[in-house]
Amino acid sequence: MAKFQTDQIRNVAILGHSGSGKTTLTEALLYHTKVITRLGRVEDGTTVSDWDPEEHRRGISINLSVIPIEHGNLKFNLLDAPGYLDFVGEVISALHVAEAGLVLLDSVAGVEVGTELAWERLQNLNKPRIVFVNRMDRENANFQKAVESLRETFSDATIIPMQLPIGQGENFRGVVSLVSMKAYLGPEGKEAPIPEEMADEVEAARMALVEAAAETDDELIMKYLDGEELTPEEVRRGLHQGVKECTIVPVYCGSAVKGIGMERLLKALGRYVPAPTERSIKATQNGEEIELTNDPNGPIAAQVFKTIIDRYVGRMNYVRVFSGTIHKEERLINARTGNEARCSNLFVARGKDLQPTDQLVAGDIGVITKLDDLVTGDTLTTPAAPITIPKPEYPQPLYSVAITPATQADSAKMGHSVAALAEEDPTLRLEYVTATKQNVLQGMGETHVDVAVQRLEQRYGVKVETSIPKVPYQETISQVAQAQYRHKKQTGGAGQFAEVHMRVEPLETGAGFEYVSEVFGGAISSVFLPSIEKGVRQVMEQGVIAGYPVVDVKAVVYDGKEHPVDSKDIAFQTAGREVFKLAVQQANPVLLEPIYRIEVTVPEEYMGDVMSDFNTRRGRVLGMEQKNNRTVIRALVPLAEVLRYGTDLRSMTQGRGVYTMEFDHYEPVPRHLMDEIIAASKAAEQER
């Protein structure tokens, strides 16, 4: 692969709704630039981007794939990101290292939920957007309708068609450029005159385009207002400025399957996507905030944005260089650990294939292998003046399953194997929930977690059984109560004796546990007080009424008795345990359930259904707001009611609703539900 300077590189994230043709487009661009000699198909599992066995099996993209393409004197690093909502972590990683997003739109479906989410992320990051209306060869394809759907949905953006299609559906055969005012026919993009029947339509669209370009530059707007004709170069200059400042969103069209429009799209990406030198990123050095400008001669700072642990190659860290130039054998450090990182194995990735390289210049993307302590989000930098680049923020998991190893051998390997998967995917987590004594695998959705379970078996030979996780309830008390308990055990040898009088008091939420002694006169020796506390803490872990941890309780030992011979540590542990149980049972115990703050974004027509659904789930709606043509509903809902909310929301909104949720607080379970939970817990205990 030829060497390119920073200003010759374009990093573009390819985004869009699942099924809009992102992987097919990437494949078409590879074929057009003669990187490959035969077009692969997603359905056959033969594309360069989709190389994972799970992607072949499911027929969808799961991983972020880096596809470098050379065209003219430019290098395009295309980051093909999954469109399926469960794999949003890959989209976040792609956008973190790209200068712009190429948003794909289906010519028939128009704007879909995945389009809106991609757009919103680009908008939040203030990164340029370019739209490509794909599948213009489909039956019922309608370019104008697709553009209108963009304008309706994103009313605050200036949507400017840069091309018009020549024909639609099975008659689609080329595009008209509104800048060069020429027609380009077929996959070869052969120049031709503009069809006469399109003259009026082309003229009107060009006027809107030139006006938008002129408004980005004072000099151009003066020339335009004076009635002078802007040259194609001036129009492009104005459009480049508008795209860079995110005030203009250019729209192109074509067919990835037929290869029509590929040449014009590549030229557009080269002209309108900002070079790395035109954007900067904030970082910290010696505790101070600095700005990295992708200077190839600056201090080295490269960030890991993706990690793959391959059984043959080992650890593969995908890095984006934000400053300086990394040479092969360069000695750097991991800013997080301070450990040395020697870049002995430097590569450029294209899908699953790695090509050795001797350097990575600022703005470029590559792979470093066999650096064991490097994980996603780490910064590689020089020891002299270490720089740290902030990590992107990944969302909280939305879907959980309890996992149990199928065999003893699986149990030994499970923790290490899941940890390896979580290193590859920051949106995947394994948590041991003490309250329920379960290992819970958390992800962004059912498909996401299922892929992780499949990979555990395929890659690491670890088979696990899954189930719906239990809700991590807690137990507490609502009033003061006291009890006493005498433990007396006489055997053939030494006996056991301990008597403890205890009072329990409720504490404020989140206060935890307090243990106090009010024993006077030596009724219980001070040496036995820790033994009583140990017994109490054992019960607090195991629970009193339903087997869940006890929280926010103050235990006060105020009296008791001991025996000069038979009193010992184990006796007071037992007495402490039993007296605490009795006191809690008399203190009007209650169950606490986790309440989650949930934010649901749906098209306006589904708002009523979602609101009424929250009422059936014991939810409390906190408020609503409008975002473009969608409604955002915020509510507090018990976790027990939303364990599988994603599936229900999809069916309620025909797949057009999305949500986020995070833990907010605990509050008491209603009495009628509490009795059911306690009864179920006791029944489960008897079965064991």
From TrEMBL:
GO molecular function (one): translation elongation factor activity
Family of the protein in this entry: Belongs to the TRAFAC class translation factor GTPase superfamily. Classic translation factor GTPase family. EF-G/EF-2 subfamily.
Residue span, Tr-type G domain: 7-277
PROSITE patterns the UniProt entry points to: G_TR_2
Protein name: Elongation factor G
Lineage of producing organism: Bacteria, Bacillati, Chloroflexota, Caldilineae, Caldilineales
Parts of the chain that traverse the membrane: none
Biological process according to GO: ribosome disassembly
InterPro entries in alphabetical order: AAA+_ATPase (IPR003593), EF-G-like_DII (IPR053905), EFG_II (IPR041095), EFG_III (IPR009022), EFG_III/V (IPR035647), EFG_IV (IPR047872), EFG_V (IPR035649), EFG_V-like (IPR000640)
UniProt keywords, alphabetically: Elongation factor, GTP-binding, Nucleotide-binding, Protein biosynthesis
NCBIfam families: EF-G, PRK12740.1-3, PRK12740.1-5, PRK13351.1-1, small_GTP
Matching Pfam families: EF-G_D2, EFG_C, EFG_III, EFG_IV, GTP_EFTU
Gene source species: Litorilinea aerophila
